[in-house]
């Protein structure tokens, strides 16, 4: 997928690919498999940049209700840029939980509130 011409991919397909890559990234990261995780991170970032370029980043918002906490976490972080209320809401829900997802959400919110969060 990296290197693909995302400009020709329909928004719905980009959103689906984003969700798949986000879930794969977190799964691989939790297993310590950075050879698998890093390319998935790049896919998520590339898709987000393309959606933002098109003015379609809000197409990700339905993923805030995704069954996978990893997907909600990624979208919550990106949503801070274009829909901060919704992004914060989901990240706060995740931060209240245990595990890696909770810690990641806490760190993302802390970085956001300090004005240090940068978007790809």
Explain this structure to me?
By secondary structure, the protein is an all-alpha fold. The chain has 5 helices and no strands. Helix 3 runs parallel beside helix 5 (99-113). It is globular and about 40 Å long. 32% of the residues are buried. The model has no long low-confidence stretch (mean pLDDT 93).
What would a concise description of this structure say?
The chain has 120 residues and is mostly helical. Helices cover 68% and strands 0% of the residues.
Name the helix and strand elements from N-terminus to C-terminus, one letter apiece: HHHHH
**What is the C-alpha radius of gyration, as a whole number of Å?**
14 Å
The helix content is 55-70%
Which shape, going by the Cα principal axes? globular
Number of DSSP-assigned strands: 0
The percentage of residues in β strands lies in: under 5%
Protein traits:
single chain, 120 residues, mainly alpha, 5 helices, 68% helix, 0% strand
Write the layout of secondary structure elements.
Layout: H1 11-30, H2 34-54, H3 69-82, H4 84-95, H5 99-113
């Amino acid at each position: 997928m990296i290197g693909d011409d995302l400009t020709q991919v329909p928004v719905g397909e980009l959103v689906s690919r984003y969700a798949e890559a986000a879930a794969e990234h977190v799964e691989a990261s939790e297993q310590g498999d950075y050879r698998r995780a890093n390319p998935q991170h790049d896919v998520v970032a590339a898709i987000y940049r393309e959606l933002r370029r098109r003015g379609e980043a809000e197409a990700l918002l339905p993923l805030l209700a995704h069954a996978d906490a990893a997907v909600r976490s990624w979208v919550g972080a990106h949503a801070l840029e274009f829909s901060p209320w919704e992004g914060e809401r989901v990240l706060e829900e995740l931060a209240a939980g245990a595990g890696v997802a909770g810690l990641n959400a806490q760190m993302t919110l802390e970085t956001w509130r300090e004005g240090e969060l940068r978007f790809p």
